[in-house]
Amino acid sequence: MLDYLSGEKNLVKSLDEKPEALPDHIGWRLWQASRAWQSEFAAAMRAAGHHWFTEARAGLLGHIPRGGMRQSALIERSAISKQAIQQLLDGLETEGVLQRLPDPQDGRGKLVRYTRKGLDALRDGDRIKLQIERSYVARLGHERFAALMGALRSLDTTQTDALDKASGVQGDTPESK
Fold first, then answer.
1. Pair 145, 136: CB distance under 8 Å
2. Is the dihedral angle over the CA atoms 122, 125, 127, 129 positive or is it negative?
3. CA-CA distance, 79 to 60, in Å (whole number)?
4. Spatial separation of the C-alpha atoms in residues 92 and 71, rounded to whole Å
5. Is the confidence at residue 129, as pLDDT, over 80?
6. Cβ neighbourhood burial of 69 (10 Å; 0-12, 13-18, 19+)
7. 19-38, pLDDT tens digit by residue?
8. Quick one: how far is CA 59 from the chain centroid?
9. CA distances from 25 to 30, 136, 150, 166, 167 (A)
10. How confident is the model at residue 18 (pLDDT cuts 50, 70, 90)?
């Protein structure tokens, strides 16, 4: 029994001293790059005077078109729980960024629309996104940045599927095999 415990301690000590390196893979690199971009963007939005701006709120706002949309469609589109969306919308409405109005097509439904403050924030966001992009071009160079954008577009299956549909290309679906 003592040898077993002693061996276990040695094994743990060995693992602690020689941690196995995690594999360097594209998912990790994409996640890190995405997190860095989101953090930089949120910090720049707050620096531009949008103190209410958080990454969680940005995740929701990214699903709302500038002309607004039905709240029920926002729930479907965002893949966020109804309760979480409710909380985010409540906060954004309190901050004066969004408003919820009765849906004339559905008496029980609500339309989510940007206020003037919300539209101003979107314009600032557009400007900040371009600034971040210019900094990426400066770091990577025009050619490498263009290649990166092309590769990311190729990996975006929703965009690829839309381009395929527009051009009449059939994907690898069970029906097409």
1. yes
2. negative
3. 10
4. 13
5. yes
6. middle
7. 677 788 999 999 999 999 99
8. 5
9. 9, 21, 19, 32, 32
10. low
Sorting pLDDT into bands at 50, 70 and 90, what band is 157? confident
Calpha distance 106→73 (Å, rounded): 13
Q: Which two tokens stand for residue 37?
A: 């971009």
111 with 103: CB under 8 angstroms? yes
CA dihedral 153, 44, 118, 38 (to 10 degrees): 40
State the Cα–Cα distance between residues 153 and 159, nearest whole angstrom.
7
User: What does R_g of the chain's alpha carbons equal in angstroms?
Assistant: 23
| Residue among 29, 95, 106 nearest 60 (CA) | 95
Q: What is the pTM of this model?
A: 0.72
Contact in structure between 150 and 130 (CB atoms under 8 Å)? no
pLDDT digits (tens, 9 = 90+) for 33-64: 999 999 999 999 999 999 999 989 998 999 99
What is the per-residue pLDDT for 169?
A: 44
